[in-house]
């Protein structure tokens, strides 16, 4: 598969072994994924570099400070999008959600709200995403070939933004309304005093774009579908939101980060949606040595595809695993107290 001898792991026990045994397995993503997401992304670097990059980039993306900065903007964009969709008649829900998440991510990354720029970047990114799991056939007409061109265009665009931002900061005429992710990545320094290179910054942006854009849009779509199919859970989620709004002081405008952290049941709905849907179906690993998996010999260098659903649908961990039930994540529930 993907040009390499491979084995697919589909049982919970075997999946956990492959994912946790770092002595025997290492990341083994397809060539297409490594080339398109980038040689400096989490999919391609060593374990030590992975720890370094994650430590340097986690806070600017989803740390408390970052989330509190963007809460107001996200709320405004969601409200305006809902109002727009309500007047459009029938819509293709996932397409609209993807546009919304892309707009939010571009604002968080680059402080950009330019419609032409966002449309051009989203078009290139969509082409790139089609090639991430494709066979690495670099011939005209194949998804990988088109995706390589899209990556080249995206890298060129991001590089020009990096160059412009560096030049403005050096000249002292860059005034930011807020510190976006590009600023954070330009400023961050590791324990050895080393800053990120342009190539690292661009690959990190592409990696987080890939991780955040598609998964966020699909998760919101499926959460809406599941809540529509299960009125009981919808009413519980709705009551929580109404309670938060009811407790607001009369002078408050908009949602606060404190209110976001009070959305415990909505968080359970999201966790259950991610469990049932399992957006990333497989994780790719590679055998670092000859290894035995449940009686099957896997030679060194072979790819091991872990079927994530085998874990998320493990009935020993999740009773009635095919059932959508956000209540299973309640820390006071009997289901969780059993484990």
Automatic annotation (TrEMBL):
Keyword field: Iron, Metal-binding
Keyword Metal-binding applies: yes
Gene3D superfamilies: Cytochrome P450 (1.10.630.10)
Gene Ontology terms for molecular function: heme binding; iron ion binding; monooxygenase activity; oxidoreductase activity, acting on paired donors, with incorporation or reduction of molecular oxygen
Similarity comment: family membership: Belongs to the cytochrome P450 family.
PANTHER family hit by this protein: CYTOCHROME P450 26, ENT-KAURENOIC ACID OXIDASE 2
Protein name: Ent-kaurenoic acid oxidase
